[in-house]
Amino acid sequence: MIYPKIIGTGSHVPEKVITNFDLEKLVDTSDEWITTRTGIRERRVVKEDVPLSALAFDASKKAIRSAGIEARDLDLIIVGTISPDMQLPSTACFLQEMLGAKRAAAFDIAAACSGFIYALSIAEQYIKTGSYKTILIVGAEVLSKVIDWTDRSTCVIFSDGAGAAVLQASSEPSQVVLSTHLFADGQFAKYLYIPGGGSLHPASHETVDKRMHYVKMSGNELFKVAIRSMEEACLIALKHNGLRPEDVDLLIPHQANLRIIEATAKRLNLPMEKVVVTIHKYGNASSATIPIALDETIRAGKVKKGNIILSVAFGGGVTWASTVIRW
Ligand code: ACO
Question: Is cis: bond before 303, omega within 30 of 0?
């Protein structure tokens, strides 16, 4: 039997902190509104000249080091992101060059906040079928560059960061990805999108004047879909593995909103002590939130051998996804 084993993780957040009080000076908002509605107290953002690949590189180097491998051992690199360095080529190709991962195939996937679990699922399949042995997956975003800093409904939420994991084919059933489940529903695409810059509305003076290159979000509509979908994805994942919610040692949810996280935990009857929360300090870095939370939890020594980790994401598309990992 070939198991997809997580042999290393790494993460990186930019040094620059923006607090809610800083945002009070930019838009008509308050620390009280942001904290009570989202749970965010501060977030990290890159300096102006830092692209996505730089964050992805830092997180990947740490993951490769913790895996005890060399970059040249990688067969494949997958980057989940909606804020790539460029439209062409993929950021995964820039990362491959920066790492010196000469043998690796490389591509990006766009599944918004579900990007890391989508990437994990692809890696899981390649390893289980024997196509590839060692795969680097990355969830990374520089959303500070695609949000409208005059729009209070988005600029208080989104942030930058990167997390990575190395998966390897193993005969040992530990630190193993037991399952991944992916979902999408394009009817809700209109609730979270960047209208400009693609083939529908190529960049022009008009798209820039109309601020079409920034994230547009109907947060309230997404909120309801998110809670429903995340519960559904968790229950499907648990059932698939013959597990009950009480078997879960750690829930690592996407960090979109503390109220969504708490509602998901409540619906699963999981106490908040079992739930990993980073949103207060990092905000919503989309595809990066889950790998950052996973890496920090592992490095803090909070993941024990045999623990069942349930992770669930929800994001633009809309997409949602879940995974169960046995440590
Ligand atoms: N400061 C002060 N007031 C604000 C702010 C702000 N930053 N933003 C909005 N408001 C106001 C609104 O204008 C509105 O005022 P009104 O009642 O006078 O019209 C009021 O606050 C309530 O606005 P809502 O949008 O209804 O607020 P809500 O409680 O829904 O919270 C939030 C907004 C935090 C965005 C929430 O809806 C949410 O978290 N949604 C889910 C987002 C999500 O899951 N996205 C997908 C993942 S992200 C990804 O894929 C990249």
Answer: no
